[in-house]
Amino acid sequence: MVHEPRIGRIRMAGKDHALRAMVPPQAAGLFAGCPTGFPLAKWPDGIPVSIASWSRDGVEVERLESYADIVSEFTRDVLPRLAALGDPDIARLVVAAWW
């Protein structure tokens, strides 16, 4: 029997889904062809990282993401930044999710 990775009751393997959002026009090209994952490393210099469900000036883009991508990006990118902010009694992370 093969066991696939899980977090709680969420299966991590084979769960790609398309996400649509709006980004600044200067970053829209990074999403050509519906890439997998978020192109943070290629984000244009001087353009704030911004992704929203709606933006008056934004361009609608699409990308693929899996549960495994979300977890690895969070542990690799977000947790170290949060820890660098200081004492956990002072720094807070607010997470919202919807389906």
Q: Termini separation (Å)?
A: 31 Å
Percent of residues in helical segments?
Answer: 10-25%
Largest sheet composition: 2 strands, antiparallel
Give the overall shape, derived from the CA principal axes: globular
Strand content: 15-25%
Please explain how this structure is put together.
It contains one helix and four strands; from the N terminus they run ββββα. Mean pLDDT is 80; it is low at 1-12. With 99 residues, it is of the alpha+beta class. Helices cover 18% and strands 18% of the residues. The chain has one helix at 67-84, and strands at 6-7, 10-11, 17-23, 59-65. The protein has one domain (6-84).
Short précis:
The protein is α+β, with helices and mostly antiparallel strands. The chain is built from 1 helix and 4 strands, in the order ββββα.
